[in-house]
Design goal:
Elements: H1 2-7, E1 13-19, H2 25-38, E2 42-47, H3 58-76, H4 81-90, H5 111-126, E3 131-136, H6 143-154, E4 161-167, H7 174-182, E5 187-191, H8 196-200, H9 209-219, H10 223-231, H11 262-274, E6 277-279, H12 283-287, H13 291-303, E7 307-309, E8 315-318, H14 321-329, H15 333-344, H16 368-373, H17 387-403, H18 407-414, H19 426-442, H20 446-457, H21 464-481, H22 491-497, H23 502-518, H24 522-537, H25 541-544, H26 549-560, H27 564-580, H28 587-601, H29 604-621, H30 624-641, H31 644-658, H32 664-680, H33 683-691, H34 694-698, H35 707-724, H36 732-748, H37 751-765, H38 770-787, H39 790-805, H40 809-823, H41 829-841, H42 848-852, H43 857-867, H44 872-879, H45 883-897, H46 902-914
Parallel strand pairs: 1-4, 1-5, 2-3, 3-4
Antiparallel strand pairs: 6-8, 7-8
Helix pairs in contact: 4-5, 5-6, 9-10, 11-13, 11-14, 15-17, 17-18, 17-19, 18-19, 19-20, 19-21, 20-21, 21-22, 21-23, 23-24, 23-26, 24-26, 26-27, 26-28, 27-28, 28-29, 28-30, 29-30, 30-31, 30-32, 31-32, 32-33, 32-35, 35-36, 35-37, 36-37, 37-38, 37-39, 38-39, 39-40, 39-41, 40-41, 43-45, 43-46, 44-45
Length: 934
């Protein structure tokens, strides 16, 4: 742009600056104007105002008002008298008496006449130094200003004139876009997103990594939005009740709605009630406008680029979530409750709220006049009925928001139900606490959810139904958090499992069964979940909506019992019901669970699809826990499928979401990410995950059903780290994790858990005793095959192949071949590439017996004595050699065996003595009885 100022010396030029809202067009414009002023240019600048409030030619009137006020008398003489009269209608500084004339209009003052009159004025203003005419927000300009702009661009005055036109593409009329693209001499500058490094430089020092990543993700490279969000970061993560109107942090975005009519404003607020994504068919129930006015208002929002078409046909979304939040927070509670009540009729709410007075707001359609003028205070809800009715309405509204996947807005409503001294039914109190806790769980705040429930528990203790509701919600929160209770079953839960309602019974049994699986009580879990499955299979989909999370807990429990086919069936059913009935709050959990089970079953394509679906749904909700869990499973599924770019991106995003948390769920995600980062060879992320302390806390993980898998992963990572660093001797850390996995597998007594424990023990022996590692890996193959986990069987074959690589390459090739045969047809391209890589690596070091053939007879004698623990002096006496000769021989032995210590010589000699001649069967060598696992 600065070079353009230098190049515009005698001929006029036009420059178009366009880009997304808030991207920095205005900032760039002002930088050019500052540079032009510094070089002596005359500057005229204005931004267009919305058409409804603009007079004809107002964009140009505003642009030249200040310049002509300073220079008017000096330049007026250069304009012919007749044309000065025309210009006087636009610029009072040129004709003060023109103030009494009627306001000009396109009909009375044609753009051609104004253009002809304006050209000599522009030549005079430009003079020798030049003139910059900067027009901003031209997409909002009035029709007459657009006519005049076209006249000047197509027939510019012959002088040093630079016309800058900044506008938003989507909001610009076709005529403006056509004009700027048809002028061959016009230059186009598209302002695009800034790279992360430049955006980060805008933040103050000391900004946490988590906040920085959060802002970068929300801004999408848009600097204006980035700065606005960073000015009030807490406002966009708020979970507590806002100030009186809740609007203060969003006022900076109200300018986006300047050009919107009252009907358009009402429709925007109604859309915000429905969420960031909505359909046009949902609007009439909330906006309550006649069809023609609704259509016109919605077209206005599309024209102003406040809403855009969504990904699915017939769906729409706000351009950015902050616009949705801005529209939402301009409403008062009375209107908001009425609108949510209307919107809730579109969704089947879980657990019908019998105590809510549904008629309290009947037929109370919000009107545009009330929306504009009545931002009511939080408690001024006139006409809502008695206290219990208002309380019930808040509970129903909060439930509707949670179900729609909007926990932050739900808490703004539900937190008002926690006030002391309210006289409401105990069941209503319990239900409000349950859904407050549910909202906190969606945001990853499980400890706070538990606290909410324990606080209200004593208040509802006299009502068995209310107490059971609280206790079941508390148990769900502890299980999601990863801290299953260690005590006996709560009395209220025993009441729930005997309830007459089969859905209530199924929900209680499912939770208790999930508790049993997490605690390692396999037989009891199988009994409870078997009964639960029978109950739920007999309940139709519509009825299940009332407690759909019963299906989630059933599926999750079955998955941990290694009944993966049944778990997948229930996860798929739950996901289908949640998607069909817009129960957005459960979609990420069902999709994540389905992806994990599909990976174990080898259904890689479905795992990737479910992982992506979970990731999208979690982003709509925004909770760290959901995003981290979805990102971790998507990362693993993507790596298995061979999509390393997606795997790496998802792993980093998941790690970012866990950074600020020291909760068991966060450690669970970090530990699951470690294996993927190792396979991706992402050392930076691996070190970052290790620094968070998850490995140190893993041994105390209270969820027994997860321990074998985590123990196997950690044993593998410890073993391979030692191999990479060429450390010798027993691997005590890998042995520790193998022992942890074995202890948990012994409690669970399931083939998959046993197979993973055997595989962990194979990793433990990999460096020091490859033969023993091969035996354990082969045993793991048998156990994991019984469990029906093909990809885990592949991993066991690869561990066996790696061990045999150091012993007998023909057996190793056989193991690699079996792994490839298993992978055929699964779409596990990542594992196939990994298998091929391992197969081409060959032995980590030459087999000991092959290297021993390099030794002379004397050197072999000395090596055997070294392995028996002889010192140099003892070897010299035994072989009748000098001490110096023994040292010389030892130096040659070290070099030929490629070792650096006497202990490594002893290990090589000892390993060679155990290696039998290769057998034609190609099978592994049986272990001694003491090395076998019962």
């Amino acid at each position: 742009m600065l070079r353009l100022l230098e190049s515009t010396r005698s001929a006029p030029a036009t420059v178009e600056i366009h880009g997304e809202p808030w991207i920095g067009k205005t900032r760039l414009l002002h930088q050019v104007l500052d540079a032009a002023r510094g070089q002596g240019w005359v500057v005229a600048h204005a931004a267009a105002v919305p058409t409804a409030s603009a007079s004809p030619y107002q964009l140009f009137s505003d642009a030249f008002e200040e310049t002509l006020a300073d220079l008017g008398a000096g330049v007026a003489g250069a304009v012919p008298a007749a044309q000065r009269t025309t210009l006087g209608l636009l610029f009072p500084a040129l004709a003060p008496t023109a103030a009494s004339l009627p306001a000009p209009s396109p009909d009375s003052v044609p753009a051609g006449a104004v253009g002809a009159a304006l050209r000599p004025l522009l030549r005079e203003l430009a003079g020798e130094s030049g003139l910059v005419l900067a027009l901003d927000d031209v997409h909002r300009a009035d029709q007459a200003s657009l006519d005049l702009l076209e006249n000047l661009v197509r027939r510019p005055p012959e002088t040093r004139l630079l016309i800058l036109v900044a506008h938003r593409d989507r909001q610009s009329p076709l005529r403006l876009r056509g004009l700027l693209s048809s002028v061959s001499a016009a230059r186009r500058i598209e302002v695009g997103p800034l790279p992360e490094q430049e955006l980060t430089a805008l933040l103050p020092k000391g900004t946490s990594r988590r906040l920085r990543r959060n802002l970068l993700g929300r801004a999408g490279g848009n600097p204006g939005l980035f700065l606005a969000l960073s000015a009030s970061p807490d406002a966009y993560e708020r979970t507590t009740t806002p100030d009186v109107s809740g609007l203060a942090p969003f006022t900076r975005f109200l300018d986006e709605f300047r050009a919107v009519s009252d009907d358009g404003w009402l429709v925007a607020q109604s859309a915000a009630i429905l969420g960031e994504r909505f359909t046009l068919q949902e609007m009439p129930s909330v906006a309550a406008l006649p069809a023609d006015r609704l259509a016109a208002a919605f077209a206005e929002l599309l024209r102003e680029d406040i809403v855009r078409p969504g990904e699915l046909a017939g769906s729409y979304r706000f351009r950015h979530p902050v616009l949705c939040a801005t529209a939402y927070h301009t409403t008062g509670e009375e209107w908001r409750l009425a609108a949510h009540s209307a919107a809730a009729q579109l969704v089947g709410l879980p657990g019908p709220c019998a105590h809510v007075a549904p008629e309290a707001l009947a037929n109370r359609a919000p009107g545009a006049d009330r929306v504009r003028s009545g931002l009511l205070t939080g408690d001024s809800c006139h006409g809502l009925g008695d206290e219990a009715g208002l309380y019930g309405q808040r509970v129903r509204t909060g439930k509707a928001l949670v179900v729609a996947g909007r926990p932050k807005q739900a808490l703004e409503v539900l937190d008002r139900t926690a006030r002391a001294g309210l006289t409401v039914p105990l069941l209503a109190r319990a239900e409000a606490a349950e859904w407050r806790a549910r909202a906190q769980r969606l945001l990853g705040r499980h400890a706070l959810a538990e606290s909410v429930l324990m606080t209200v528990r004593s208040e509802v203790a006299t009502d068995p139904e209310a107490l059971a509701l609280v206790d079941l919600a508390w148990l769900a929160a502890t299980l999601e958090r990863g801290c299953p209770p260690s005590g006996a079953t709560l009395p209220a839960l025993r009441w729930a499992v005997r309830h007459d309602n089969p859905l209530t019974r199924a929900y209680a049994w499912a939770l208790l069964g999930a508790w049993d699986t997490d605690s390692g009580r396999t037989e009891q879990a199988e009994f409870r979940l078997g009964d639960t499955a029978g109950l739920i299979d007999g309940i139709d989909d519509t009825t299940l909506i009332g407690r759909l999370d019963a299906l989630y807990w059933l599926a999750g429990g079955l998955a941990r019992l290694e009944q993966d086919e049944e778990a997948a069936r229930h996860f798929e059913r739950g996901l289908g019901i949640a998607a069909a009935h817009d129960l957005d709050y459960l979609v990420p959990q069902f999709a994540t669970g389905l992806a994990e089970v599909c990976l174990r079953l080898g259904r890689v394509d479905l795992a990737v699809e479910s992982g992506r679906r979970a990731d999208r749904a979690a982003h709509r909700i925004g909770g760290d826990c959901l995003l981290a869990e979805a990102g971790a499973v998507l990362s693993r599924a993507a790596w298995v499928s061979g999509d390393q770019a997606t795997a790496r991106d998802a792993a980093h995003r998941a790690a970012d979401r866990t950074e600020a948390w020291r909760e068991p769920w966060a450690d669970r995600v970090r530990l699951s990410l470690l294996e993927t980062t190792y396979d991706l060879d992402d050392q930076g992320l691996r070190k970052r995950l290790m620094s968070m302390g998850a490995v140190r806390r893993a041994a105390a993980l209270p969820v027994v059903s997860l321990v074998p898998a985590l123990g196997e992963v950690l044993a593998r990572l410890e073993s391979e780290s030692r191999l990479e660093s060429e450390q010798s001797g027993p691997d005590t850390e890998a042995g520790h994790w193998a022992a942890v996995a074995e202890e948990a597998a012994g409690r669970m007594r399931l083939p998959g858990a046993t197979g993973l424990a055997l595989l962990a023990r194979a990793h433990h022996h990999q460096a020091a005793d490859p033969l023993k590692a091969a035996v354990f890996a082969s045993s793991a193959v048998v156990a994991l095959t019984r469990a029906g986990r093909p990809l885990d069987v592949v991993r066991a074959h690869l561990a066996a192949a790696t061990a045999w690589n150091d012993i007998d390459s023909s057996v190793a090739r056989s193991q690699f071949g079996q792994a490839r045969a298993l992978l055929d047809g699964y779409g596990a391209h990542g594992y196939l590439e990994h298998t091929d890589t391992l197969a081409t690596q060959g032995p980590r070091q030459q087999p000991a017996d092959a290297r021993l053939t390099r030794l002379t007879g004397r050197e072999r004698e000395i090596s055997v004595l070294v392995s028996d623990g002889y010192t140099n002096q003892q070897i010299a006496r035994a072989l009748q050699l000098s001490h110096k000769t023994v040292e010389t021989h030892l130096g040659r032995i070290f070099k030929k065996l490629d070792v650096g210590s006497r202990a490594q010589v002893a290990t090589s000699i000892g390993r060679a003595s155990r290696i039998p001649a290769p057998r034609s069967s190609g099978g592994p060598v049986p272990a001694r009885g003491s090395d076998q696992i019962a």
